[in-house]
Amino acid sequence: MRLTIKSLPRLGVCAYVQAIMLLMPATVLYAAAAQAEEVGITGAGSSFAAPIYQSWSVPAGAQTGVDVNYQTVGSSAGQDQVIERTVDFGASDKPMSAERLAKTHLYQFPTVMSGVVLVVNLPGVPEGQLRLDGPTIAALYDGRITDWDDPRIKALNPDITLPDMGVVAIHRADGAGTSYVFTSYLSEVSPQWKEKIGAGTLVEWAGGAGARGNDGIAALVRQTEGSIGYVEYAYAAQNHLDIVQLKTHEGAFIAPSLQSFVAAAAAAHWEAKEQFAVNLLDRPGVGSWPIVSATYVLVPEDAVDQPEGRAVKQFFQWGFAHGGEINAQLGYVGLPKEVSDAVLSGWPLSAAKR
């Protein structure tokens, strides 16, 4: 049996990780479980990254003995909780600044990359056929476009009959790394957006409706006609949402795919001295998805030589080495090996050597 990305929406993440377990040889699971020292760790933060960490956790736990409890609370809360040392690792799509990392004694590293996609609920519009570009999306979200049959949308979709229906722009109500990625993209492609609203995990939205988490936006879009929302790709696939084609940096309209995320990530320049922060938005290339981001983990340097700190490293080391197939099934792109090697070699050795 071989799972494909098309099978994921029918399974959902929970059923998917159960299927992974069934595919693993029983002897491997039993032997690994017998040899591994069981340690429980808790992580919290990014909903963008939740599907991959939750999917890694079952086979990783079976092979390493690390029991991962990951709480989807949003990137802002994930940063806050790891600073307060109430979790063993925090997860955020917005990288923390070097100054704040030094002040809070945290080690930051990327784990995977994926795309943010626009999803709509437009009766009468063929699924997957709506086309939008960055400036038009900005106008939909800042209130300059209020109806779906607006001439600016018609110009991008001459062969589609657009509904005479008001726009319901759905955004995150919580502090979200996905919002940071989305609003950073809009700030790059729309001067009006950059001047009026800007980028952030929380911004002053111009109306619309709010929802908590990627799953909250997905659910609200499904039940709201005339709506548009932004979610990480796996949530759109799992929920059978209508995904918008976006205009690339080179002017071509494309649908999101693993290949388009890989294309956007190909030119990334990772620097340990820059805490591995990279900009993957609106990258050159006809096939590059315009809204791609890495997601990051934050680890307390004062706990690296504790059992939980060692278990955090063990979990992500497993993900770097063995998570490739799961990444691809869910629409995530793993790090280049030289980057994951740099992450592990740069890991603090002990609290005394931070």
**Helix-strand category:** alpha/beta
Query: Number of helical segments?
Result: 15
Contiguous runs where pLDDT drops below 50 for at least 5 residues:
1-35
Largest sheet: 10 strands, mixed
Radius of gyration: 20 Å
The CATH class label of the largest domain is: Alpha Beta
CATH fold-level name of the largest domain:
D-Maltodextrin-Binding Protein, domain 2
Number of domains: 2
How far is it from the N-terminal to the C-terminal residue, by CA? 46 Å
Number of strands: 13
In CATH, the architecture of the largest domain is 3-Layer(aba) Sandwich
Strand percentage, roughly?
A: 15-25%
Gross morphology: elongated
Helical amount: 40-55%
- The arrangement of helices and strands along the chain is HHEHEHEHEEHHEHHEHEHEEEHEHHEH
Provide the CATH superfamily of the largest domain. Periplasmic binding protein-like II
Round the mean pLDDT to the nearest integer and report it.
90
Task: Please characterize this protein's 3D structure.
The chain folds into two domains: 5-112 and 273-279 and 293-353, Periplasmic binding protein-like II (D-Maltodextrin-Binding Protein, domain 2); 116-267, Periplasmic binding protein-like II (D-Maltodextrin-Binding Protein, domain 2). It starts with 7 loop residues before the first helix and ends in a 9-residue tail after the last helix. Strands 1, 2, 3, 4, 6, 7, 8, 9, 12 and 13 form a ten-stranded mixed β-sheet that branches. Strands 5-10-11 form a three-stranded mixed β-sheet. Helix 1 runs parallel beside helix 3 (50-64) and helix 3 crosses helix 13 (307-322). The chain has helices spanning 8-23, 26-35, 50-64, 75-83, 98-104, 134-142, 151-156, 177-189, 191-196, 213-223, 233-238, 258-265, 307-322, 324-330, 337-345, and strands at residues 39-45, 66-72, 89-92, 106-121, 131-132, 168-172, 209-211, 227-232, 242-243, 245-247, 253-254, 292-300, 333-334. It has 354 residues and is an alpha/beta fold. The radius of gyration is 20 Å and the shape is elongated.
